[in-house]
Amino acid sequence: MWVDVVGASHEEIRSIAEQLGLDEASIEESFAPAGLPVVEEHVDQIYLVLHGFSTGSGERLSASEIDLFIGKTFLVTIRDGPRDTIELLKERLSEDDGVPVSSPAGLLAFMALGAVRAYGPLILELERQVDNLEEMAIRGDPQTAVEVHALRRDVIFLRRALGPQFDVYEDLSESGHPAIDDDARHLFVRVAGQHRRALEALESGRALLGSVLETYRGAVADQTNEIMRVLTVFSAILLPLTLIAGLWGMNFVDVPGADIRWGFWGVIAAMAVLVIGVWVYFTRRGFIGAPRLRDLPKAVGLGLFTIGTAPIRVVAGGIRHLGKSEE
Question: What percentage of the chain's residues is helix, strand, coil (to nearest 5)?
């Protein structure tokens, strides 16, 4: 007999427990807030606390508690809401073929095997999201850090829940309790193995997310270094020009070259020579790329334009990312 109790009150649950002879202390424990998965063996029954997972608010994982009692002739499941695996199993039980189990413990093991198989698509989705985050990290997308921390939260949350649940199924696979027959014990071995593989995949995913975060930080550092280099070159070129303009712009009567007709154009020519000299020096030192001579006029113009608009492009990029996050 399988009694599936969904959304019942405490009084109704106590009434069912009294009719089936369920352990009173375990029933009271089932009313407490959800804790870690546990298994408690009594003389004629086993009390279990397992977790079911679903997508909560913000597409993040959430867990709900399922309390179970296993006896030689009955299985009792107590839950607050629908669980996909349980509902699918109930539909299959309503069919003519039923399920290939010979005991209530075997029914639980069959249900657990169906639930753990659902972790496969979840792991594949995790790997897909990690691949997408790697591309975002290489680009230095500011949204990367937010997504990595959210996904790590889900991975850690799922791993912390599956770890104790794996211990529960491993204990059931090794238990000599009379409510667990050999067929159910073999199924619990398979369930424990599936949980072990899921835990290994989650541990691997957690390590990969750490690598993605380091890649993102490295990309951001490279972008910052590039911006600083551009601003440094920009400042180094303008500094001597500002010095010359400041010296010749002082309010003195006797300014050298002020009474010469070509004095102004001479200073401008000196500034141009100085700019070209600084550019060639930076090029030879490897601070900036070295353009070919025939492309030098074009490269100088484009380079100065890029240098001048670099701060604007940085601010504009931040505004675009802010707009996307608000959408």
Answer: 70, 10, 20
- Provide the CA 78 distance to its chain's centre, in angstroms: 32
Classify residue 39 by its DSSP letter.
E
Domain residue ranges in the chain: 2-220, 223-326
E strand or H helix at 249, and its extent?
Answer: none
What distance in Å separates the CA atoms of residue 325 and residue 142, rounded to the nearest whole number?
10
**Cut 0.85: pTM above it:** no
Q: If you count them, how many residues does the chain have? A: 327
Chain CA centroid to CA 93, Å: 38
Contact 160, 37 (CB under 8 A): no
For 313, residues 6+ apart whose C-beta sits below 8 A from its C-beta are none
Q: In whole angstroms, what is the distance from residue 75 CA to residue 1 CA?
A: 6
Residues 6+ apart with CB under 8 A from 12: 5
Architecture of domain 2-220: 2-Layer Sandwich (3.30)
Q: Find the angle CA(72)-CA(77)-CA(79) to the nearest 5 degrees.
A: 170
Both structure tokens of 40? 């408690």
What is the residue-level pLDDT of the chain in tens, covering all 327 positions? 888 888 888 889 889 888 888 888 888 888 887 677 888 888 889 998 888 776 555 556 667 788 889 988 889 988 887 676 677 777 777 665 667 778 888 888 888 888 887 777 777 877 788 888 888 888 878 888 888 888 888 788 788 878 888 888 889 888 888 888 888 888 889 989 888 888 888 888 888 888 888 888 888 888 788 778 777 777 877 887 887 777 777 666 676 766 777 777 887 888 888 888 888 877 777 666 544 444 444 433 433 333 334 343 433 444 344 444 444
First-last CA distance in the chain: 52
